Input
Amino acid sequence: MTAESTVPSPAGRQPWAAESAVSVLDPRGLAAGRGLPVGRGSRRPRRTSRAALLLVDGGAALLGALAVPWAYRYPLVIALLALGVIGLNRRAALYDTHVVPGVLDELPAVCGRIAVGWAAVAALSPLRPLPMTVLLTAFAVHCAAACAGRGAVHGRRRRALRRRPCPALVVGPASAGRRVAAALLRHPDCGVRPVGLVADAPGGFADSGDGPVVPVLTSSQDARRAVIQNGVETVLVVGATTRVEKAALLRELTAYGCVLWELSEGTSSPSYGPEGRRAGAGQLAGFSRRLLCPRGRHRGGSAGKRALDVVLAGALLSLAAPMLLVCAVVLRVLDGPGVVFRQERIGKDGRPFTMLKFRTHRPASAHEAATRWSVANEQEMSRFCQLLRRTSLDELPQLWNVFRGDMSLVGPRPERPYFVAKFSQVHPRYPERHRMRTGITGLAQIHGLRGDTSIEDRCRFDNAYIDNWSLWQDICILMRTAVQFLRPTGS
Output
């Protein structure tokens, strides 16, 4: 758990943490998935599309149920039907918004899962005595509403991509990469605009013959700069051999929040198998493609983890309310107004959020608070403020961040934008910590890595936690944190 404060760290720690006060990062310009700045035009429409698809499927289930006489008497059956169909659709990756399919492409999958839902209703619910014609009518209405609604959502997103294509990097051999980049430039309707070709050939340009040019990037540093400056979210990998040869670079781009696709130059689709098709196999400007790294499916973002956060954070907020009130009143009396300290931190997928703490120290300025590592003149704090820091009671307001969804109870500790940029330059795996919601406590903290300790060690523990996440591991970390809660280790 880091400090909000204001002086350089002691010698031998992070000597660069207190370097020039010139900010290397505009925290408001962070794009999701990177923890580093991107172009002003970057945006992420995926969450909106997924929410719209969920609403469409829920509404379609309701419309289908309205075609059944007396269905209003059984609201639980209707709710279970809607949730069952949504669950089947989710398992089939029908909410994967990395691709924008047509209505006919989705028709068999959508209607097949609706049929399973209505078959369960007909066999197991109080509606089973209804005539088959009524159930078939309800099934048809449900299918029509779902397909029409999903078609409208996909059409809207397709039009948005035509107006504003997603910036992409092409990674592969120079000759093949140039062909892919040129094809994408010739077909802007595909919704992807190449902004760079990562190849081992000397620098130059790939072009479409009569239009824009794409720079050839020959180093990892150039690729990272292209990702940051253009808000790149899509990486197109040309050929399976490139995936092996550029493994280190691709891992780094994935950590920056990019989605990886493999493109095949062959005339026939590669044999990806059922898993590949579920992961968004299809075509892009005539090239067969397969989703290599579907973001948003990491098990660390599971519904179970979020449910644990909501239940425990809500319960702890209720139980700790008297203590929160006492701390706030004492701080107000001893230190004047401004009881709660608000500071911008970087959360899941590089998104900034406002983290809450009890104010135990007043920085000289907002700039100083954002760019200095440790607390200045900690010995001059009141005894009560020192007690809050030693016992970590100053962190209690973060339970509200957890309840809101900004943070999790367990996860990597969030850091300020300035230090995210600094640490990312020195520790290559640091951006990977943002694959999961940041937390109040974590694996690093229960191993003593709190306050002014090794960033390299914290990074290693945090990524190990994410790579091996389980709900039971979260429970164990919470129990060990509870045991250590009153130990005077500081925050």
